[in-house]
Amino acid sequence: MTAPIRAHYEQLAPLFEYPGPDYPAHVRLARESLGNRYPVAVAELDAFARALPSETDTFSTEALNDMQEIFTRSFDVQSITTLGVGYVMFGDDYKRGELLVNLNREHREAGVDCGTELPDHLPLVLCLLARWPDPEIVGEFVEEILYPALEKMIAEFGPERMEQRNRLYKKYFKTLITSSEERGTIFRAPLAAVNAVLAEDFHPSPPQRPERGSDFLRAVGRELDIEAHEGRPRPRPRPRPRTAPSGRML
User: Fold this and answer.
1) How far apart are CA 230 and CA 240, in angstroms?
2) Cα 26 from chain centroid (whole Å)
3) Are the C-beta atoms of residues 164 and 44 closer than 8 Å to each other?
4) I need a surface site. Which of 2, 18, 43, 157 has the fewest CB within 10 A?
5) Any bridge partners for residue 121, and if so which?
6) Are 234 and 226 in contact (CB under 8 A)?
7) Is the pLDDT of residue 94 over 50?
8) 103 — alpha (psi -120 to 50), left (phi > 0) or beta?
9) Mean pLDDT over residues 139-147, rounded?
10) Is 212 exposed, middle or buried (0-12, 13-18, 19+ CB in 10 A)?
11) What is the pLDDT of residues 123-134, one digit of tens each?
12) Residues 234, 235, 239, CA angle at the centre, nearest 5°?
């Protein structure tokens, strides 16, 4: 697979950047870049576009504020998940550090400007995917890291995980952040769209079934527990064994 065939990934990247007034236009361009080759992904993006608080290529001020709040709730503050694919896979394990070092080098060689973001930030990874010249390393990265990370991120938007998260926040804060039932989880759709494209382009092996519970929720719970009991000594959690992906990237 050559780089021009992967150009559509660069059109998908803006879907996971903090929304600006022209965000609906980026959604339209991403959908158009897929043509008729990816029917599952196109259906997801069509559903995403219908859920946006706008029927034009530009958000009103009110619609922009709504989308920015949903984006923040989804990926930043008390978030559903995170856009750092390395963190999703490895947490704070040293393997993520190795991945960041390697990705930083690959971004630099491919001409992808990381700005202030870490190199495993999903929009940056998608831009890199479009430009990476080595098909072998691209396939390995998708198989071992990107595809399973997206599967985990999508799972966090499921009803069981959302209920677990709501119970967690209610325990510590007594109240929940309000959210629209229609739009509160809409970013699941573009994540699913990207995974559908990856499945069509690379045919990765199905990831191992996620174990019951959530690494992300456990991490959030530990952070909240520390905040609630600041100053009290707490037992250190036992580290969980992880398997490092093979190959050049790690």
Assistant:
1) 24
2) 17
3) no
4) 2
5) 84
6) yes
7) yes
8) alpha
9) 97
10) exposed
11) 999 999 999 999
12) 135
CB 22 within 8 A of CB 14: no
What does the block give as tokens for 159? 């009803």
> Which amino acid is present at 133?
P
**182-191 pLDDT tens trace:** 567 999 999 9
C-beta atoms surrounding 147 within 10 Å: 20
> Given a cut of 90, is residue 213 above it in pLDDT?
no
Task: Give me the phi and psi of 119, to 5 degrees please.
Answer: -70, -10
State both tokens at 173. 């804060």
- Looking up tokens 């879907």 gives 15
Residue 3 DSSP one-character state: G
Residue pointed to by tokens 């993006």: 45
The model's pLDDT over 61-86, given as tens digits with 9 standing for 90+, comes to 999 999 999 999 899 876 789 999 99
pTM exceeds 0.85: no
Count H helices, E strands: the chain?
12, 0
Return the ∠ at Cα 24 (arms to 8 and 196), rounded to 5°: 40
Q: What is the Cα gyration radius of the chain?
A: 18
Pairs from 160-165 (Cβ < 8 Å, separation ≥ 24)? 161/80, 161/214, 161/217, 162/80, 164/213, 164/214, 164/217, 165/80, 165/217, 165/220
Distances (CA, A) of 247 to 103, 128, 134, 156: 13, 18, 13, 28
Q: From 152, 143, 83, 149, select the one nearest 118 (Cα to Cα).
A: 83
What residues pair up with 84 in beta bridges, in sequence order? 121
pLDDT over 70 for what percent of the chain?
71
